[in-house]
Amino acid sequence: MESFIQTVTYVNGKVNGFVWGPIMLVFFLFVGFMFTVRTGVFQISHFKYWIDVTFLNIFRKKEVRKTQDAHAISQFQSLCTALAATIGTGNIAGVATAIVAGGPGAVFWMWLSAFLGTMTNFAENTLGIKYRSKNEKGEWVGGAMYYIERGLGWKWLAVIFSCFCTLASFGIGNMSQVNSIASGLKNSFDIDPRITAVILMIFVALVILGGIKRIASVTEKIVPFMAIAYIVGGLIVIFCNIGDVPGAFALIFREAFSFRSAAGGVAGYGISVAMRNGIARGVFSNEAGLGSSVMVHSASDVKEPVVQGMWGIFEVCADTLIVCTITALVILTSGVYNTDAYLSAIAAGEEVVSGAALTSNAFSSVIPHGDKFVAIGIMLFAFSTVLGWSFYGERAINYLFGAKAVPVYKVIFIIIIYFGCTASLDLVWDISDTFNGLMSIPNLIAVTLLSGEVIKLTKEYIQRVKSGKETETGEMIDE
Protein backbone atom coordinates (compact mmCIF):
# COMPACT_ATOMS: atom_id res chain seq x y z
CA MET A 1 0.00 0.00 0.00
CA GLU A 2 2.81 2.35 0.89
CA SER A 3 4.54 1.73 -2.44
CA PHE A 4 1.26 2.41 -4.25
CA ILE A 5 0.86 5.74 -2.47
CA GLN A 6 4.45 6.62 -3.29
CA THR A 7 3.82 5.81 -6.95
CA VAL A 8 0.64 7.88 -7.02
CA THR A 9 2.46 10.75 -5.32
CA TYR A 10 5.32 10.58 -7.82
CA VAL A 11 3.04 10.46 -10.89
CA ASN A 12 0.84 13.22 -9.54
CA GLY A 13 3.89 15.35 -8.83
CA LYS A 14 5.04 15.04 -12.42
CA VAL A 15 1.60 15.84 -13.87
CA ASN A 16 1.09 18.70 -11.39
CA GLY A 17 4.47 20.09 -12.30
CA PHE A 18 3.31 20.30 -15.90
CA VAL A 19 -0.23 21.68 -15.44
CA TRP A 20 1.01 24.36 -13.02
CA GLY A 21 4.46 24.62 -14.60
CA PRO A 22 6.06 27.18 -16.94
CA ILE A 23 4.58 25.85 -20.20
CA MET A 24 0.97 25.94 -19.02
CA LEU A 25 1.37 29.24 -17.16
CA VAL A 26 2.70 30.80 -20.38
CA PHE A 27 -0.32 29.31 -22.18
CA PHE A 28 -2.63 31.00 -19.63
CA LEU A 29 -0.92 34.34 -20.20
CA PHE A 30 -0.83 33.89 -23.98
CA VAL A 31 -4.58 33.35 -24.24
CA GLY A 32 -5.34 36.38 -22.09
CA PHE A 33 -2.80 38.48 -24.02
CA MET A 34 -4.28 37.36 -27.34
CA PHE A 35 -7.80 38.47 -26.42
CA THR A 36 -6.48 41.67 -24.86
CA VAL A 37 -4.71 42.64 -28.07
CA ARG A 38 -7.42 41.47 -30.48
CA THR A 39 -10.14 43.38 -28.61
CA GLY A 40 -8.09 46.57 -28.38
CA VAL A 41 -7.41 46.16 -24.65
CA PHE A 42 -11.14 45.90 -24.02
CA GLN A 43 -10.78 45.76 -20.22
CA ILE A 44 -9.39 49.32 -20.29
CA SER A 45 -10.60 50.89 -23.55
CA HIS A 46 -14.20 49.87 -22.83
CA PHE A 47 -14.07 50.24 -19.07
CA LYS A 48 -17.20 52.42 -19.10
CA TYR A 49 -19.18 49.75 -20.92
CA TRP A 50 -18.42 46.84 -18.66
CA ILE A 51 -18.48 48.75 -15.35
CA ASP A 52 -21.87 50.29 -16.28
CA VAL A 53 -23.35 46.99 -17.42
CA THR A 54 -22.12 45.11 -14.36
CA PHE A 55 -21.32 46.80 -11.05
CA LEU A 56 -23.20 50.08 -11.54
CA ASN A 57 -26.24 48.36 -13.03
CA ILE A 58 -26.68 46.36 -9.82
CA PHE A 59 -27.79 49.57 -8.10
CA ARG A 60 -29.80 50.96 -11.02
CA LYS A 61 -31.89 48.11 -12.37
CA LYS A 62 -33.87 45.57 -10.40
CA GLU A 63 -33.93 43.10 -13.31
CA VAL A 64 -30.14 42.75 -13.01
CA ARG A 65 -30.60 41.55 -9.41
CA LYS A 66 -33.82 39.59 -9.88
CA THR A 67 -35.20 37.60 -12.78
CA GLN A 68 -38.72 36.91 -13.96
CA ASP A 69 -37.59 33.67 -15.60
CA ALA A 70 -38.60 30.77 -13.35
CA HIS A 71 -35.93 28.55 -14.93
CA ALA A 72 -32.99 30.96 -14.85
CA ILE A 73 -31.03 33.04 -12.37
CA SER A 74 -30.32 36.77 -12.59
CA GLN A 75 -27.08 38.28 -13.84
CA PHE A 76 -26.18 39.35 -10.29
CA GLN A 77 -26.94 35.87 -8.94
CA SER A 78 -24.74 34.28 -11.60
CA LEU A 79 -21.91 36.63 -10.60
CA CYS A 80 -22.35 35.87 -6.89
CA THR A 81 -22.42 32.12 -7.49
CA ALA A 82 -19.30 32.35 -9.65
CA LEU A 83 -17.58 34.50 -7.02
CA ALA A 84 -18.70 32.02 -4.38
CA ALA A 85 -16.59 29.39 -6.10
CA THR A 86 -13.60 31.65 -6.87
CA ILE A 87 -13.35 33.73 -3.67
CA GLY A 88 -12.09 31.01 -1.36
CA THR A 89 -9.19 30.06 0.86
CA GLY A 90 -6.81 31.05 -1.94
CA ASN A 91 -7.65 34.70 -1.33
CA ILE A 92 -6.57 34.41 2.31
CA ALA A 93 -4.04 31.58 2.55
CA GLY A 94 -3.01 31.39 -1.11
CA VAL A 95 -1.79 34.99 -1.33
CA ALA A 96 0.31 34.54 1.82
CA THR A 97 1.75 31.32 0.42
CA ALA A 98 2.66 33.06 -2.84
CA ILE A 99 4.47 35.86 -0.98
CA VAL A 100 6.42 33.42 1.19
CA ALA A 101 7.33 31.10 -1.69
CA GLY A 102 7.95 33.71 -4.37
CA GLY A 103 8.61 36.90 -2.47
CA PRO A 104 6.60 40.15 -2.57
CA GLY A 105 7.22 40.32 -6.32
CA ALA A 106 4.80 37.43 -6.77
CA VAL A 107 1.98 39.92 -6.14
CA PHE A 108 2.92 41.84 -9.29
CA TRP A 109 2.75 38.70 -11.43
CA MET A 110 -0.54 37.81 -9.77
CA TRP A 111 -1.86 41.21 -10.90
CA LEU A 112 -0.58 40.64 -14.44
CA SER A 113 -2.23 37.22 -14.67
CA ALA A 114 -5.49 38.75 -13.42
CA PHE A 115 -5.31 41.68 -15.87
CA LEU A 116 -4.90 39.30 -18.81
CA GLY A 117 -7.23 36.76 -17.20
CA THR A 118 -10.12 39.23 -17.33
CA MET A 119 -10.22 38.77 -21.08
CA THR A 120 -9.86 35.00 -20.88
CA ASN A 121 -12.88 34.93 -18.59
CA PHE A 122 -14.66 37.35 -20.91
CA ALA A 123 -14.12 34.97 -23.84
CA GLU A 124 -15.20 31.91 -21.86
CA ASN A 125 -18.47 33.44 -20.75
CA THR A 126 -19.23 34.93 -24.15
CA LEU A 127 -18.86 31.47 -25.69
CA GLY A 128 -20.83 29.96 -22.82
CA ILE A 129 -23.91 32.04 -23.64
CA LYS A 130 -23.54 31.52 -27.40
CA TYR A 131 -23.48 27.72 -27.17
CA ARG A 132 -25.82 27.10 -24.24
CA SER A 133 -29.21 25.43 -24.62
CA LYS A 134 -32.25 24.57 -22.52
CA ASN A 135 -32.73 21.17 -20.92
CA GLU A 136 -35.94 19.20 -20.43
CA LYS A 137 -36.83 21.37 -17.41
CA GLY A 138 -36.46 24.58 -19.40
CA GLU A 139 -33.25 25.53 -17.59
CA TRP A 140 -30.30 27.09 -19.37
CA VAL A 141 -27.30 24.73 -19.41
CA GLY A 142 -23.87 25.58 -20.71
CA GLY A 143 -20.20 25.47 -19.98
CA ALA A 144 -16.86 24.69 -21.55
CA MET A 145 -18.00 21.17 -22.46
CA TYR A 146 -20.83 22.62 -24.58
CA TYR A 147 -18.73 25.03 -26.62
CA ILE A 148 -16.08 22.32 -27.01
CA GLU A 149 -18.67 19.91 -28.41
CA ARG A 150 -20.83 22.34 -30.39
CA GLY A 151 -18.19 24.85 -31.40
CA LEU A 152 -15.37 22.44 -32.27
CA GLY A 153 -17.36 19.23 -32.72
CA TRP A 154 -14.99 17.43 -30.34
CA LYS A 155 -17.25 15.57 -27.93
CA TRP A 156 -14.33 13.42 -26.77
CA LEU A 157 -12.53 16.52 -25.48
CA ALA A 158 -15.72 17.76 -23.83
CA VAL A 159 -15.99 14.42 -22.02
CA ILE A 160 -12.40 14.71 -20.80
CA PHE A 161 -13.07 18.22 -19.49
CA SER A 162 -16.21 17.03 -17.67
CA CYS A 163 -14.34 14.14 -16.05
CA PHE A 164 -11.63 16.46 -14.76
CA CYS A 165 -14.28 18.90 -13.50
CA THR A 166 -16.16 16.17 -11.61
CA LEU A 167 -13.01 14.94 -9.89
CA ALA A 168 -11.92 18.49 -9.06
CA SER A 169 -15.34 19.22 -7.52
CA PHE A 170 -14.80 16.45 -4.97
CA GLY A 171 -11.26 17.58 -4.15
CA ILE A 172 -10.49 21.27 -4.53
CA GLY A 173 -14.21 22.14 -4.48
CA ASN A 174 -15.14 20.07 -1.44
CA MET A 175 -12.63 18.20 0.74
CA SER A 176 -9.86 20.80 0.73
CA GLN A 177 -12.37 23.59 1.49
CA VAL A 178 -14.20 21.87 4.34
CA ASN A 179 -10.89 20.72 5.80
CA SER A 180 -9.83 24.37 5.98
CA ILE A 181 -13.08 25.18 7.78
CA ALA A 182 -12.68 22.32 10.26
CA SER A 183 -9.02 23.15 10.94
CA GLY A 184 -9.74 26.85 11.40
CA LEU A 185 -12.62 26.25 13.82
CA LYS A 186 -10.55 23.68 15.73
CA ASN A 187 -7.56 26.01 16.12
CA SER A 188 -9.51 29.19 16.89
CA PHE A 189 -12.57 27.92 18.76
CA ASP A 190 -11.60 24.33 19.73
CA ILE A 191 -14.58 22.83 17.88
CA ASP A 192 -14.36 19.10 17.18
CA PRO A 193 -13.96 18.52 13.40
CA ARG A 194 -16.62 15.80 13.58
CA ILE A 195 -19.15 18.33 14.83
CA THR A 196 -18.12 20.75 12.09
CA ALA A 197 -18.52 17.95 9.53
CA VAL A 198 -22.08 17.12 10.56
CA ILE A 199 -23.17 20.76 10.65
CA LEU A 200 -21.62 21.42 7.22
CA MET A 201 -23.27 18.34 5.74
CA ILE A 202 -26.66 19.57 6.93
CA PHE A 203 -26.24 23.13 5.66
CA VAL A 204 -24.75 22.11 2.32
CA ALA A 205 -27.54 19.55 1.81
CA LEU A 206 -30.22 22.15 2.55
CA VAL A 207 -28.77 24.40 -0.15
CA ILE A 208 -27.61 22.17 -3.00
CA LEU A 209 -30.63 19.84 -2.92
CA GLY A 210 -32.70 22.89 -3.88
CA GLY A 211 -30.88 23.27 -7.19
CA ILE A 212 -29.30 26.30 -8.82
CA LYS A 213 -32.12 28.67 -7.82
CA ARG A 214 -31.51 27.98 -4.12
CA ILE A 215 -27.73 28.02 -4.50
CA ALA A 216 -27.95 31.39 -6.23
CA SER A 217 -30.36 32.71 -3.61
CA VAL A 218 -27.91 31.84 -0.83
CA THR A 219 -24.75 33.02 -2.57
CA GLU A 220 -26.24 36.41 -3.48
CA LYS A 221 -26.60 37.00 0.28
CA ILE A 222 -23.35 35.41 1.51
CA VAL A 223 -20.90 36.66 -1.10
CA PRO A 224 -21.52 40.44 -0.82
CA PHE A 225 -21.53 40.20 2.99
CA MET A 226 -18.34 38.16 3.29
CA ALA A 227 -16.47 40.15 0.64
CA ILE A 228 -17.40 43.53 2.13
CA ALA A 229 -16.62 42.37 5.69
CA TYR A 230 -13.21 41.06 4.66
CA ILE A 231 -12.37 44.14 2.59
CA VAL A 232 -13.39 46.48 5.44
CA GLY A 233 -11.31 44.50 7.93
CA GLY A 234 -8.36 44.58 5.55
CA LEU A 235 -8.71 48.33 4.94
CA ILE A 236 -8.68 48.94 8.69
CA VAL A 237 -5.31 47.21 8.95
CA ILE A 238 -4.00 49.03 5.87
CA PHE A 239 -5.15 52.47 7.07
CA CYS A 240 -3.55 51.86 10.47
CA ASN A 241 -0.30 51.31 8.57
CA ILE A 242 -0.98 53.86 5.83
CA GLY A 243 2.56 55.19 5.98
CA ASP A 244 3.89 51.81 4.89
CA VAL A 245 1.64 51.48 1.82
CA PRO A 246 3.95 53.32 -0.64
CA GLY A 247 6.82 51.15 0.57
CA ALA A 248 4.75 48.00 0.10
CA PHE A 249 3.98 48.90 -3.52
CA ALA A 250 7.62 49.79 -4.14
CA LEU A 251 8.66 46.45 -2.65
CA ILE A 252 6.24 44.54 -4.89
CA PHE A 253 7.49 46.19 -8.09
CA ARG A 254 11.16 46.01 -7.08
CA GLU A 255 11.05 42.36 -6.07
CA ALA A 256 9.09 41.39 -9.19
CA PHE A 257 12.25 41.96 -11.25
CA SER A 258 14.98 41.29 -8.69
CA PHE A 259 17.63 38.59 -8.65
CA ARG A 260 17.92 38.36 -4.87
CA SER A 261 19.46 35.27 -3.35
CA ALA A 262 20.03 34.08 0.15
CA ALA A 263 23.05 32.65 1.95
CA GLY A 264 25.35 31.70 -0.88
CA GLY A 265 22.53 31.32 -3.37
CA VAL A 266 21.02 28.34 -1.57
CA ALA A 267 17.57 29.86 -1.85
CA GLY A 268 16.24 33.10 -3.19
CA TYR A 269 13.49 35.11 -4.79
CA GLY A 270 14.36 35.35 -8.47
CA ILE A 271 12.15 36.61 -11.29
CA SER A 272 11.21 33.08 -12.37
CA VAL A 273 10.24 32.09 -8.83
CA ALA A 274 8.13 35.21 -8.36
CA MET A 275 6.49 34.75 -11.76
CA ARG A 276 5.67 31.09 -11.20
CA ASN A 277 4.14 31.60 -7.76
CA GLY A 278 2.32 34.82 -8.61
CA ILE A 279 0.81 33.61 -11.90
CA ALA A 280 -0.11 30.19 -10.50
CA ARG A 281 -1.79 31.67 -7.43
CA GLY A 282 -3.58 34.26 -9.54
CA VAL A 283 -5.02 31.62 -11.85
CA PHE A 284 -5.82 29.35 -8.92
CA SER A 285 -7.71 32.17 -7.22
CA ASN A 286 -9.79 33.63 -10.08
CA GLU A 287 -9.97 30.42 -12.19
CA ALA A 288 -9.76 32.37 -15.46
CA GLY A 289 -8.88 29.77 -18.07
CA LEU A 290 -10.19 26.76 -16.17
CA GLY A 291 -13.65 27.00 -17.74
CA SER A 292 -15.35 26.43 -14.39
CA SER A 293 -17.40 29.60 -13.81
CA VAL A 294 -18.83 29.41 -17.34
CA MET A 295 -21.29 26.79 -16.11
CA VAL A 296 -23.02 29.15 -13.69
CA HIS A 297 -22.74 32.23 -15.92
CA SER A 298 -24.53 30.23 -18.62
CA ALA A 299 -27.52 29.80 -16.29
CA SER A 300 -28.13 33.57 -16.33
CA ASP A 301 -31.20 35.12 -17.92
CA VAL A 302 -28.99 37.42 -20.02
CA LYS A 303 -29.67 37.60 -23.78
CA GLU A 304 -26.44 39.10 -25.11
CA PRO A 305 -23.31 36.87 -24.91
CA VAL A 306 -20.92 39.83 -24.65
CA VAL A 307 -22.81 41.22 -21.66
CA GLN A 308 -22.21 38.03 -19.71
CA GLY A 309 -18.61 38.19 -20.86
CA MET A 310 -18.31 41.57 -19.16
CA TRP A 311 -19.61 40.05 -15.93
CA GLY A 312 -16.66 37.70 -16.29
CA ILE A 313 -14.29 40.69 -16.39
CA PHE A 314 -15.79 42.07 -13.20
CA GLU A 315 -15.55 38.64 -11.53
CA VAL A 316 -11.77 38.44 -12.01
CA CYS A 317 -11.29 42.06 -10.92
CA ALA A 318 -13.29 41.52 -7.73
CA ASP A 319 -11.54 38.28 -6.85
CA THR A 320 -7.90 39.06 -7.56
CA LEU A 321 -7.38 42.77 -8.18
CA ILE A 322 -9.44 43.68 -5.10
CA VAL A 323 -9.67 40.87 -2.53
CA CYS A 324 -6.24 39.31 -3.14
CA THR A 325 -4.61 42.76 -3.22
CA ILE A 326 -6.18 43.59 0.14
CA THR A 327 -4.64 40.44 1.63
CA ALA A 328 -1.23 41.22 0.13
CA LEU A 329 -1.19 44.79 1.45
CA VAL A 330 -2.35 43.67 4.91
CA ILE A 331 0.60 41.26 5.09
CA LEU A 332 3.20 43.66 3.65
CA THR A 333 2.21 46.72 5.72
CA SER A 334 1.56 45.04 9.08
CA GLY A 335 5.20 44.18 9.79
CA VAL A 336 4.64 40.43 10.21
CA TYR A 337 6.59 39.69 7.02
CA ASN A 338 10.20 40.69 6.38
CA THR A 339 11.81 39.73 3.09
CA ASP A 340 15.37 39.40 4.39
CA ALA A 341 14.32 37.44 7.47
CA TYR A 342 12.25 35.01 5.41
CA LEU A 343 15.04 34.55 2.88
CA SER A 344 17.52 33.75 5.61
CA ALA A 345 15.14 31.32 7.29
CA ILE A 346 14.40 29.54 3.99
CA ALA A 347 18.12 29.28 3.21
CA ALA A 348 18.77 27.80 6.67
CA GLY A 349 15.99 25.25 6.20
CA GLU A 350 13.97 26.73 9.04
CA GLU A 351 10.18 26.58 9.18
CA VAL A 352 8.47 29.90 8.51
CA VAL A 353 4.95 31.15 9.15
CA SER A 354 2.94 30.94 5.94
CA GLY A 355 -0.58 30.55 4.59
CA ALA A 356 -3.56 31.41 6.74
CA ALA A 357 -1.38 31.71 9.85
CA LEU A 358 0.60 34.58 8.31
CA THR A 359 -2.58 36.37 7.25
CA SER A 360 -4.01 35.86 10.76
CA ASN A 361 -0.92 37.38 12.34
CA ALA A 362 -1.23 40.38 10.02
CA PHE A 363 -4.86 41.02 10.97
CA SER A 364 -4.14 40.41 14.67
CA SER A 365 -1.49 43.15 14.62
CA VAL A 366 -4.31 45.71 14.47
CA ILE A 367 -7.66 43.99 15.02
CA PRO A 368 -8.28 42.29 18.40
CA HIS A 369 -8.85 38.55 17.90
CA GLY A 370 -7.74 38.94 14.30
CA ASP A 371 -7.11 35.20 14.13
CA LYS A 372 -10.78 34.55 14.81
CA PHE A 373 -11.76 37.14 12.19
CA VAL A 374 -9.65 35.31 9.63
CA ALA A 375 -11.00 31.93 10.76
CA ILE A 376 -14.57 33.14 10.23
CA GLY A 377 -13.54 34.62 6.87
CA ILE A 378 -12.06 31.29 5.79
CA MET A 379 -15.21 29.51 6.94
CA LEU A 380 -17.50 31.75 4.85
CA PHE A 381 -15.18 31.82 1.84
CA ALA A 382 -14.72 28.04 1.88
CA PHE A 383 -18.43 27.32 2.48
CA SER A 384 -19.43 29.46 -0.49
CA THR A 385 -16.77 27.74 -2.61
CA VAL A 386 -18.30 24.37 -1.76
CA LEU A 387 -21.71 25.60 -2.92
CA GLY A 388 -20.35 26.97 -6.19
CA TRP A 389 -18.30 23.88 -7.00
CA SER A 390 -21.18 21.55 -6.18
CA PHE A 391 -23.01 23.15 -9.11
CA TYR A 392 -19.98 22.78 -11.39
CA GLY A 393 -19.76 19.09 -10.54
CA GLU A 394 -23.51 18.71 -11.03
CA ARG A 395 -23.30 20.21 -14.51
CA ALA A 396 -20.38 17.96 -15.43
CA ILE A 397 -22.19 14.84 -14.18
CA ASN A 398 -25.34 15.87 -16.04
CA TYR A 399 -23.32 16.20 -19.24
CA LEU A 400 -21.64 12.83 -18.78
CA PHE A 401 -24.51 10.66 -17.52
CA GLY A 402 -27.73 12.66 -17.74
CA ALA A 403 -30.09 14.19 -15.17
CA LYS A 404 -30.78 10.86 -13.44
CA ALA A 405 -27.20 10.75 -12.15
CA VAL A 406 -27.33 14.20 -10.53
CA PRO A 407 -29.11 13.15 -7.26
CA VAL A 408 -26.53 10.39 -6.79
CA TYR A 409 -23.73 12.91 -7.30
CA LYS A 410 -25.25 15.27 -4.73
CA VAL A 411 -25.50 12.51 -2.10
CA ILE A 412 -21.88 11.50 -2.66
CA PHE A 413 -20.80 15.15 -2.55
CA ILE A 414 -22.51 15.61 0.82
CA ILE A 415 -21.05 12.41 2.31
CA ILE A 416 -17.52 13.34 1.23
CA ILE A 417 -17.75 16.46 3.39
CA TYR A 418 -17.39 14.30 6.50
CA PHE A 419 -14.14 12.73 5.30
CA GLY A 420 -12.87 16.12 4.20
CA CYS A 421 -13.32 17.52 7.70
CA THR A 422 -11.87 14.58 9.62
CA ALA A 423 -9.11 13.05 7.45
CA SER A 424 -5.53 14.00 6.62
CA LEU A 425 -5.68 15.29 3.07
CA ASP A 426 -2.17 16.18 1.93
CA LEU A 427 -2.20 13.79 -1.04
CA VAL A 428 -5.87 14.50 -1.79
CA TRP A 429 -5.13 18.22 -1.95
CA ASP A 430 -2.25 17.64 -4.34
CA ILE A 431 -4.28 15.35 -6.61
CA SER A 432 -7.33 17.60 -6.66
CA ASP A 433 -5.08 20.56 -7.44
CA THR A 434 -3.82 18.58 -10.44
CA PHE A 435 -7.33 17.82 -11.72
CA ASN A 436 -8.19 21.48 -11.26
CA GLY A 437 -5.29 22.43 -13.50
CA LEU A 438 -6.04 19.69 -16.02
CA MET A 439 -9.42 21.32 -16.69
CA SER A 440 -7.58 24.22 -18.28
CA ILE A 441 -6.00 22.20 -21.10
CA PRO A 442 -9.18 21.31 -23.07
CA ASN A 443 -10.74 24.65 -22.17
CA LEU A 444 -7.82 26.82 -23.33
CA ILE A 445 -7.53 24.81 -26.55
CA ALA A 446 -11.21 25.42 -27.29
CA VAL A 447 -11.16 29.11 -26.34
CA THR A 448 -8.11 29.67 -28.56
CA LEU A 449 -9.60 27.88 -31.57
CA LEU A 450 -12.94 29.68 -31.13
CA SER A 451 -11.33 33.08 -30.55
CA GLY A 452 -12.53 34.35 -33.93
CA GLU A 453 -16.15 33.96 -32.83
CA VAL A 454 -15.49 35.91 -29.62
CA ILE A 455 -13.90 38.78 -31.55
CA LYS A 456 -16.76 38.81 -34.07
CA LEU A 457 -19.45 38.85 -31.35
CA THR A 458 -17.62 41.62 -29.49
CA LYS A 459 -17.23 43.85 -32.55
CA GLU A 460 -20.88 43.35 -33.55
CA TYR A 461 -22.05 44.20 -30.02
CA ILE A 462 -19.96 47.37 -29.83
CA GLN A 463 -21.18 48.45 -33.25
CA ARG A 464 -24.84 47.95 -32.29
CA VAL A 465 -24.41 49.94 -29.07
CA LYS A 466 -22.59 52.78 -30.82
CA SER A 467 -25.21 52.91 -33.60
CA GLY A 468 -27.98 53.15 -31.02
CA LYS A 469 -29.70 49.96 -32.16
CA GLU A 470 -29.14 48.22 -28.85
CA THR A 471 -28.71 49.16 -25.20
CA GLU A 472 -25.55 48.16 -23.40
CA THR A 473 -27.45 45.34 -21.67
CA GLY A 474 -28.36 43.68 -24.94
CA GLU A 475 -31.95 44.89 -25.36
CA MET A 476 -32.96 45.97 -28.89
CA ILE A 477 -34.24 49.52 -29.20
CA ASP A 478 -37.51 49.96 -31.12
CA GLU A 479 -37.03 52.27 -34.07
H/E topology pattern: HHHHHHHHEEHHHHHHHHHHHHHHH
CATH architecture: Up-down Bundle
- SS element count, helices: 23
The CATH homologous superfamily is named Amino acid/polyamine transporter I
In helices, the fraction of residues equals over 70%
Instruction: Name the poorly predicted regions.
Output: 261-267
**Biggest beta sheet attributes:** 2 strands, antiparallel
Radius of gyration: 22 Å
Kindly, what is the distance between the CA atoms of the first and last residues, rounded to a whole number of angstroms? 73 Å
Counted beta strands: 2
Shape: globular
Spatial order of strands in the largest sheet = 1-2
Residue fraction in strands: under 5%
Number of discrete domains: 1
Computed structural class: mainly alpha
List its salient traits:
globular; 479 residues; two-stranded antiparallel ribbon; 23 helices; mainly alpha; 1% strand; Amino acid/polyamine transporter I
Quick summary:
The protein is an all-alpha fold. It contains 23 helices and 2 strands. The protein is 77% helix and 1% strand.
Tell me about this structure.
The chain is an all-alpha fold and 479 residues long. It has one domain (8-467): Amino acid/polyamine transporter I, CATH 1.20.1740. The protein is 77% helix and 1% strand. It has helices at 2-19, 22-38, 42-45, 47-60, 62-65, 75-86, 89-102, 105-130, 144-152, 155-189, 193-208, 211-240, 245-256, 271-286, 294-297, 305-334, 339-347, 355-364, 370-401, 406-422, 426-438, 440-449, 451-467, and strands spanning 133-134, 140-141. A two-stranded antiparallel sheet has the order 1-2. β1 and β2 form a beta hairpin.
